[in-house]
Amino acid sequence: MTLLTEHSRVVLMEGLPELGLSAGTIGTIIHVHREPPGYEIEFFSPTGETVAIGTAHPHQVRLCVPTDMVPA
């Protein structure tokens, strides 16, 4: 399992409807919660504006890879 740390870019594996976010949304970890484990994540629009900040459980995210990024 890949260790996710602050500033890791991640992809939602499932949506967070309470934040209006769908699976596949990319964000950046801004805080790692140790107990219980989880992440505070900032999500951005394609133009770089913050659209949401929310908490996700480890099973809800994975590390972002280059193929997740949409070309400009």
Automatic annotation (TrEMBL):
Lineage: superkingdom: Bacteria
Source organism of this protein record: Verrucomicrobia subdivision 6 bacterium BACL9 MAG-120820-bin42
Short name of any one Pfam family annotated for the protein: DUF4926
InterPro entries: DUF4926
Entry protein name: DUF4926 domain-containing protein
